[in-house]
Backbone:
């Protein structure tokens, strides 16, 4: 198995003790060639075979020679029987046509093996996919139940102002969050978790993520009455990581909806380059008008063909995930603003580290403004933090001897 970089965004962590970063690499379960072959549909294989036969016939007619051949029709017949490895022997290649015949035979063997392999494994793959989907749903549902229970314990411990219990519950939630997120991202990358039969349980998981971040928001906005730096760090990191995970999963859902066969992808690409609106015949010359009308006709036909296959941004699942993602992003912004507008142990430590040594006469005028600019907080908040440190008798600070 080949090691490949994890295809996710960077997950932010502000607390090394409570947050375990996802692994930097994931094992690819199939090779690049295997993935390319797996993506090919029956239509792709048939079209590929037709193109190979027609291309070989054209090359043989232009650059090669067949004994007892009367022209292009005989070249097509010869290419077909060579591609299917029948080889009747009534036509024989000469010169460059021999090289084309070798390549055509190899292409025919590859086509036959791929077609037989797809037929033979289709039923088995369907059964394995059903078993795998059932197992994934069971595992994700178990994660949801566990995280939901831990979230209730966190709110209860925080409401009771039980610092040790709140700290340990946050640590446990982060640990289980890491396990569930790694499991979901791995299977979304490797086994199309987002592409078949798991929408309902994944939406349930996203709602649990939303509840967890809401609890982190409650902790952050009430930390004045419940100041604890470890709780502050863990809840802030968990809020950021849950928001990152929902963004990653949204991208993986979009990617799974854009997983077309090669023929469908080509048709969709051609359709998107054609005009989608009626043209005004009076404003154009007759030749240009006919050209644009033909393009519009082709567009409408391709739209009918690809209507059920093309990615739809208004899909109900994507709309639901976007709604949760937007809500979590707005809440995370509020948490960050809260961090910068409310005095907390972490902010006090940052201000303390930036304060010069010596008594107030050594500080100079406008020390709070320079600290505010350094920490990107308001001047009033910086001054309040300095006053708090003075009241706690942590300032002035003097050099150690």
Residues:
């Amino acid at each position: 198995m080949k090691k490949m970089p994890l295809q996710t965004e960077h997950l932010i962590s502000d607390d090394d003790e409570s947050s375990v970063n996802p692994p930097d690499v994931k094992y690819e379960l199939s090779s690049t060639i295997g993935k390319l072959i797996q993506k090919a549909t029956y239509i792709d294989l048939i079209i590929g075979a037709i193109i190979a036969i027609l291309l070989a016939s054209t090359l043989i007619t232009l650059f090669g020679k067949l004994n007892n051949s009367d022209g292009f029709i005989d070249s097509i017949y010869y290419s077909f029987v060579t591609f299917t490895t029948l080889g009747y022997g009534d036509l024989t290649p000469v010169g460059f046509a021999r090289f084309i015949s070798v390549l055509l035979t190899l292409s025919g063997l590859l086509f036959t093996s791929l077609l037989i392999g797809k037929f033979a494994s289709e039923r088995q793959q369907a059964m394995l996919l059903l078993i795998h989907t059932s197992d994934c749903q069971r595992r994700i549902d178990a994660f949801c139940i566990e995280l939901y229970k831990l979230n209730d314990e966190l709110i209860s411990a925080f409401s009771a102002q039980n610092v040790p219990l709140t700290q340990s519950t946050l640590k446990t939630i982060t640990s289980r969050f890491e396990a569930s997120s790694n499991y979901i991202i791995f299977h979304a990358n490797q086994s199309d978790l987002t592409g078949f039969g798991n929408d309902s349980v994944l939406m349930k998981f996203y709602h649990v993520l939303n509840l967890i971040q809401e609890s982190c928001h409650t902790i952050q906005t009430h930390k004045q009455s419940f100041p604890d730096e470890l709780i502050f760090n863990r809840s802030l990191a968990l809020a950021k990581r849950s928001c990152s995970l929902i963004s990653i999963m949204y991208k993986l859902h979009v990617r799974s909806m854009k997983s077309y066969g090669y023929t469908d992808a080509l048709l969709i690409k051609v359709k998107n380059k054609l005009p989608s609106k009626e043209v005004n015949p009076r404003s154009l010359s007759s030749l240009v008008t006919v050209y644009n009308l033909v393009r519009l006709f082709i567009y409408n036909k391709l739209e009918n063909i690809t209507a059920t296959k093309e990615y739809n941004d208004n899909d109900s699942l994507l709309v639901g995930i976007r709604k949760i993602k937007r809500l979590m992003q707005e809440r995370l912004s509020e948490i960050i603003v809260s961090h910068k507008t409310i005095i907390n142990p972490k902010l006090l430590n940052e201000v303390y580290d930036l304060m010069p040594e010596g008594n107030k006469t050594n500080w100079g005028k406008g020390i709070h403004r320079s600290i505010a600019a350094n920490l990107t907080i308001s001047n009033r908040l910086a001054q309040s933090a300095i006053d708090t440190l003075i009241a706690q008798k942590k300032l002035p600070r003097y050099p150690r001897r």
User: Anything to note?
Assistant: The chain is about 70% helix and 5% strand. Strands lie at 2-5, 25-28, 65-67, 92-94. The mean pLDDT is 81. The two ends are 59 Å apart (CA to CA).
